[in-house]
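Q: How would the structure tokens look for this protein?
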Amino acid sequence: MPNTTAGIGTKLPESEATPADGRFDPDGVREFLQSIYRLNKQGLNHLAIDEILRFFDDALLAGNLVDCREALRQIDEGELSASMMKTVLVITGKAKSWLPERTEFFARAMEVLAKERGREAAERILNKHR
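A: Here is the predicted structure in token form.
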């Protein structure tokens, strides 16, 4: 069962250490992204959130930063709900020092959400997960 507590229990390396990058699984990343987009379009936001938590938690527990980085690079935030964007930020929060793509994802998500709901609402939703 995936860890759905947003990183609690995720074993990250000591602050001085660098985690293993793992091997890139392009099919796995592509399938993950297609799955969350499909679930969102079907109105199954809760299942999409579960899938986001599972994907990132499994990759982080395995020390597979390559898949995390690539998923963050490729995510089309325009295909995600606000809660899905927030979930991506929460689950990757403890590993942000090893995921520079997370900062870029945050900026893209903020822009999409600001266009949808206004800058103030977007900041209220996302800023605490910067």
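The first helix runs from residue 26 to 41.

Helices lie at 26-41, 45-61, 65-74, 82-92, 100-117, 119-126.

Upvote if useful.
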